[in-house]
Amino acid sequence: MDEHKTVIILGGTGFVGRAVTEKYLKNKWRVVIPTRSRNLAEAKNKLLSHGFDENSLENFLSANLLLFALDVDLSEKKWSEPDNWSRLLREINIPIFSILRVINFVGETSKSAEEILKSNINTLVSIFTLVRYIKSQNKSTIFVNMGSVVEKRSNTNLSPYEYAKKVAYQEIKKSNLCDFHFIAEYIKGRGEQKMKSVAPILWQKLKFSHRWFFGFKVSVIDVDDLAEVIYHLIEETKIKQQRFKPIEVYVTNGELTFGEIVKNLLPESNRSIPKQIFPNWLAFLFLYFYSLIIPQIKPNDQFIRRLANFAERSIKKENKTDGFKTAEEIKKMALDSKKYEILEKEPSLIISDKQSPVIYVLIEKNEIELKLIVQKALL
Ligand SMILES: NC(=O)c1ccc[n+]([C@@H]2O[C@H](COP(=O)([O-])OP(=O)(O)OC[C@H]3O[C@@H](n4cnc5c(N)ncnc54)[C@H](OP(=O)(O)O)[C@@H]3O)[C@@H](O)[C@H]2O)c1
User: Fold this and answer.
1) pTM score, two decimals?
2) Hey, which of 250, 280, 289, 349 has its CA 20 to 30 A from 133?
3) For residue 8, what are the β-bridge partners?
4) What ligand 1 atom has the least distance to the C-alpha of 33?
5) What average pLDDT does the segment 189-199 reach?
């Protein structure tokens, strides 16, 4: 096989993985995606379901620029053996020195608690084995990981997803292998399946309490903008890695009220918000007890736990989550030249913290554009 620059994208068949896979392929990289899929058709269908164009998919496959490593379940013990990775790469004919990037998007966000823990935590041993093996052969290989804002939550009553991401983040830091750790709050846009399918259920379940449950703001990033940022920072800006410490990169397009996100994921005929029929103090009490009692009664129900989370955030009236900066804050920070360095002003504002390895990226959009990002999931 020729010596194309190669990137291994773990979780490359998923919602976020599709966008980054496409970005690297369009820039003439060879992409290898390890997947649990048993055959090519299954793997292809996952990418197509997330909006990959069918013609280009066939072209990339026949040019051997996109390769699937089938039947790779990273939670299986066999992948914690470097020999098995070495064998796999030989079988698919990828020279190890051509692998310059490993990017990790593995991790269920909305299945059962057991699946969430397994895919976010149990897979890490295998992922670290692969990265360690590749870095041992090629020191300049960069390892990029996708984190989440929830990993910074300090509550004691964490949902399975929050708990899994928190543990994963600690493991990532401990491994000393990660070069870039990207953090986004809500990723939306083309190919999104999960929130699209869950939005009507949320709306239905919360018939008379939408406003209370969903009245807080969250940061939104379009999935293809996120892919652009990842590619730009790593391949074009060429930000230098730190030794043994990940550079944390927070990315946002701006903020939208969570209720607006859910609303914009519904068919137009279904978008009316019922009138608030209880006084505010009663709503507050309802949310307070909901957030307190529900996690005790149904500790393993991911959906209910997330509702309890929304309830908790609504009473706190928090407009931002831990660690995350709003668009306004990022613009203000850019003026503080003692603490922050502006790396780029256009097309996105990129600033870095002078004291610690943290970068903030803002591709600012107005409210109408943010709503369109959400609606792209419906196309
Ligand atoms: N979506 C968001 O709004 C959001 C926000 C912040 C952070 N994130 C983070 O971004 C990452 C990707 O999220 P996503 O929405 O793209 O999820 P997704 O669509 O569910 O994709 C997850 C990917 O993980 C792979 N995977 C899961 N378990 C695996 C296993 N045991 N072995 C091998 N591969 C496995 C799947 O590959 P196969 O099915 O092909 O095996 C799939 O491609 C996650 O870490 C998530 O926490 C997402």
Assistant:
1) 0.93
2) 250
3) 32, 102
4) 40
5) 88
